[in-house]
Amino acid sequence: MESAGYYTNCKKTDGICEGICDGEHGSKAVLSMSRLKCALRGFDLKALLFLLIGVPIIIFVIYVHGQKVTYFLRPIWEKPPKPFTVLPHYYHENASMANLCKLHGWKVREAPRRVFDAVLFSNELDILDIRWHELSPYVSEFVLLESNSTFTGLEKKLHFKENRQKFEFAESRLTYGMIGGRFVKGENPFVEESYQRVALDQLLKIAGITDDDLLIMSDVDEIPSGHTINLLRWCDDTPEILHLQLKNYLYSFQFMLDDKSWRASVHRYRAGKTRYAHYRQTDDLLADSGWHCSFCFRYINDFVFKMKAYSHVDRIRFSYFLNPKRIQHVICQGADLFDMLPEEYTFQEIIAKLGPIPSTYSAVHLPAYLLEKVDQYRYLLPGNCMRESG
Where are the membrane-spanning stretches (predicted)? Predict the structure, then answer.
């Protein structure tokens, strides 16, 4: 059919848009609307709904839970580190030191080595008090360095300096140092942390450490048991570097996560060789050597401060993580402050640790000073999860 120079072919139809050709004398606007209607009628409605609703939901879920997905898939893209050589640990209060050294394959010394306990301090006053009382009978010199800056570059008070009178029992054996922060914006927090650990090396020299003295390298909340340090200072032929396996607690001694804390270490000091660090430095690990009580604070404000101050500040993905009511709820549940999955290397271990940490009601074999000062430190014992807001 041909009309006024135009050729229209309506022989082929699909049963959906055949009406478009009926109005051959219709306006271009009508024909355009008809063609649009045809296109929409041919479009799959389910696909349209998926694009408009499903895709935004998927994007939102990835934004909220993407880190969990990454952690859950960790066994696929990351292999576990080389296992430690775990050394058996023998102890009883009635066993002689000669027999204890012999059980470990070591010889007993005629006199104990000197022991230096060196820490970087932030704001963990209660845990430091418990730590120093636990180690006091065996430590020759306490070495403490604090900064007016957090690892993340936030300004902070010199909490130890302001509360130094609380630690008068250690004053005669204390080497204290203060280092000014660099306050570099946007810098990786581990750079500032490394900077402070190098300064601690210098403070140890000021404290008078010499070759073959024992040096404890651990964070304040990684507390070696006193009898472990006593064993190492009395025995000869011990490894020059020895990591300590600590029971891993969260928020208090009610929630024991596992016994996989290993970063604490004891070194036989070597001038020019020994460097203060907080990473793996040997394959030797002494079993059951103390306690790691992470985020064990009295005040909710201290939880908020540490969450913003320590090197893993990137874990605060949402501002509501810092809400005091949420933090209190998380503490009593034994859940994760950052809503993260367990940091494990096998699916079996990840699945086994999903959910809150089960409570333990045992307060056996904890630091003695904690139990002696139970009225002061009750919040760290099982059954006392409520925290103060100050």
Answer: 43-64
The amino acid at 25: H
Residue 177, beta-bridge partner list: 145
Q: 203 phi and psi, to 5 degrees?
A: -65, -35
Kindly provide the residue ranges of all beta strands, DSSP E only, lying in the chain, ordered along the sequence. 2-3, 6-7, 85-87, 107-108, 115-121, 141-147, 174-179, 214-217, 222-224, 235-236, 241-244, 246-250, 256-261, 265-268, 284-286, 290-294
- pLDDT tens, per residue, the chain with 390 residues: 444 444 444 444 444 454 444 444 556 655 665 665 665 555 566 777 777 777 677 676 666 566 767 777 888 888 899 999 999 999 999 999 999 999 999 999 999 999 999 999 999 999 999 999 999 999 999 999 999 998 888 899 999 999 999 999 999 999 999 999 888 877 888 888 899 999 999 999 999 999 999 999 999 999 999 999 999 999 999 999 999 999 999 999 999 999 999 999 999 999 999 999 999 999 999 999 999 999 999 999 999 999 988 767 778 888 999 999 999 999 999 999 999 888 898 999 999 999 999 999 999 999 999 999 999 999 999 999 999 987
39-70: burial string, b at 16+ Cβ within 10 Å, e else: eeeeeeeeeeeeeeeeeeeeeeeeeeeebeee
CB atoms within 10 A of CB 72: 17
> For residue 213, is it within any domain?
yes
Number of domains, the chain: 1
The pair of structure tokens assigned to 389 is 């807001």
Cα separation, 67 vs 71, whole angstroms: 6
Q: Which residue has the tokens 């271009």?
A: 28
**Rg of the chain in Å (alpha carbons):** 32
Four-CA torsion 273, 278, 279, 280, nearest 10 degrees:
70
Q: Name every residue whose Cβ is closer than 8 Å to that of residue 240 and which is 6 or more positions away in sequence.
A: 267, 268, 270
Residue 249 lies in a domain: yes
User: Does any domain span residue 240?
Assistant: yes
CATH number of the domain that 257 lies in?
Answer: 3.90.550
Residue 184 lies in a domain: yes
Do residues 188 and 153 lie in contact, with contact meaning Cβ atoms separated by under 8 Å? no
> Which residue(s) pair with 108 in the sheet?
235
Full-model pTM: 0.83
